[in-house]
User: Fold these one by one.
Assistant:
Number 1:
Amino acid sequence: MTTGVIKVLLIEDNPSDAGIARALVEAGQGAFICEWVDSLARGVERLAAGGVDVVLLDFGLPDSEGLATFLAVQEAAPTVAVVALTGSGDEATALTAVQHGAQDYLFKGSVNRHLLSRAVRYAVERKRSQEALQRAHDELEDRVEARTAELNRLYETEREARRQAEQLRVASVALSHRLVQVQETERREIARELHDEVGQVLTGLKLLLEMAARHGGTKGDEGLAQAQTLLNDLTGRVRDLSLNLRPTVLDDLGLVHALVWLLDRYQTQTGVSVTFTQAGIEGRRFTPEIETAAYRIVQEALTNVARHAAAGEAHVHVWASEDVLSVQVEDHGRGFDAEWKTLRRNSGGLAGMHERADLLGGRLTIDSASGHGTSVSASFPLSSDSQPGGFERV
Amino acid sequence: MKISIVLADDHHIVRQALRALLSSEADFELVGEAGDGLEAIRVVERLNPRILVLDLMMPLLNGLEVARQVTLRTRTRVIVLSMHANDAYISEALKNGAAGYVLKDSQSSELVAAIRLVAAGQRYLSPPLSERAVELYGRRVGKMPEDAYDTLTGREREVLQQAAEGHTNAQISEKLFISSRTTETHRANLMRKLNLQNQSELIRYAVKRGIISLGD
């Protein structure tokens, strides 16, 4: 039951009826405060000011009749409880009012103190429960709506994740194929070189030695001398094969020495002269992955210069700050235009360079224009624990 | 007085052969051996030999680093033994304090001569190698351009000019017919090469170089 003072608004045009009602209400031992207005208009006005808990409403007002009266009050104060007061002939209207939201109705003739106070209290209580229920209902609706939106989002996210996973899978399969292809191509090449260059010489060597053993004497000595020459030649070829695959100086002494070594060979092999400058590298080494990637990118860029640029010279610059290592190969040869650039992005060499840079969080940029030469530059971020100083390796 | 020697090489057979060789010389005394880089330093610090004969490529600690530390921390002189005849290797060995460099496939008499010369305070390089060549090599490798501006590519100079004149990356890309990503790269590269931190430093530099004048 409601405690605390209940503020009642009596809307009744008949003064004596009003008097009775007020007296009855106020007999409720201070639990009620009763205000009285004598018309609907004044009632609505009072309600607008607020602070009323329950309305005792006479349905036979001068400025309104029956249900319309009730509806007007309800509109003016939708959260205030209404108890209808009606003459005994008007039960139908009162019932309709209850159907429309009034809490209760009382017959004026048969009202006593207890009935009235009980009706008023119950009315307030019921109204508050109704309001609470409505609020709970509204809140629930809101939550359902939010949850549905959330689920939709999650569903979308999951679909997107699935799509990406599929994309990755496809890319991964393509990459595996390519890896196998590249491996086989490399192996084929190595096998060919071993067969053609090393195998042949070994066969020749075997024959010479057999002959030398058979003949002996000066002829034998000559044979041995020839075998010696052949053997030296073979040693050179094997060394070259090995160095072509991977120069030991790259692992042993690092990027700068490896590049100088590469450039010497390159100039001899291609006739393209290359100048080399460095800044900030003195004595520094970097992770093997970065040194290898930088080396291979320069190697590939120089190969392209020899093949496509028709340039007489090129320049290689390597420089490092505290957190970035960069290599750059520049020539003033033919250059190539953008469309070809996109095309070649999918070709082995260029794609390989991009990948090497990407894998290490670095960046490869190729700037070229027909008739304006080409510059290839790659940068690699250095982590704070990259090896400073020299050749410590544990 | 005998020349005390410590031998460091990770190949057991090589050590055996060198041991035999060195023990046969009357004025040599082999006082210790090591099979890896860390052990080499330990043994040298403990025994204080006159000479350390050191293989360049050893496990645990690279021969160059061993040479550096021994030279820094002791008075032992280092002779490097290596199969590499590459100027790069010799240059690094000498830079790290080696007093001698002997090729592994040279005659054994060479190592003996090297030890005697280095013990007497001189330097020694196996005959096919020359100190002059090594020095020239060292200069090539260490070649730093005096003026950082010389290291800029043609394109980077163009971008520097445009940037100094106040053009945005978008404008520069349009002018030079390159992608904005390429412009960014050029800009980042030139800033790093010239050691510039921001736009105002770039402008100051450009003014100093006469690339733009203050009136622009």
Number 2:
Amino acid sequence: MAATKPRIKIPESAKSGELIEVRTLITHVMETGNRKDREGKTIPRDIVNTFVATYAGREVFRAELGPGISANPFIAFWLKVPGPGTFEFAWTDDSGTTVVETLPLNVV
Amino acid sequence: MAVRTATYTLMNRRAFVLAAGAGGLALPSWLQAAETAPAPVMAPFMERTQQFQDALSALLAGATPIEGKILVELPEIAENGNFVPLTVSVESPMTDADYVKSIHILSTANPVARVGSFHLSPVNGLAKVQSRMRLAKTQDVVALALQSNGIVLIATAMVKVTIGGCAS
């Protein structure tokens, strides 16, 4: 199942050169591949394995996730605002599906 | 005709032991006096899965990691092994000349050792990442930071887990 409902938290506005925190969350079961269903069959692994954040067209953060990351993966990182721009966040899961969320940053 | 009557000396075990001891015989341990010293307290053995060791060697790529400048924030006791908040921060100027290229989280006892890898560059300004991890049981969590100057930093935090995360 694909990831759904991405939620992003960034400041309402920021100055160029300011250090801001970017908090991201997405709904995804992050199935480890170790659980068994009621019949005893192993539930196959299905996780968000890659998260990439770009800002103003360039990659600013990349994460490779394993099954040891909790369900509904929460990832927070920092950015020194290089200038005005729009964020693009992409979550890719084991099935190859990518969910993208864009969000502009109000740079004053 | 003479009737010979054999005489048996009834020897109890204690007498035998004493006699044997005096005679210099080595006795099996069950015959010897019991040791009454209390058993020593054993420190809990913090395991390191083979997968963890392989993942660590692969990431180190021959470098000798040094401790310091990297802080791993994890709760001392995790009530729920499914959601353990984690923060790793590295003291770094994050300039083009000196920055943290990547931060890696390794579990020493989960079925899969590599928990997450986070790639940074000077634009991040701060080498700090947060997430939530699964811990199958009480264990050490190891964080590695690979710097642009080739230095590898390492830090370890022990987390006691009350209820293990679902076979992560």
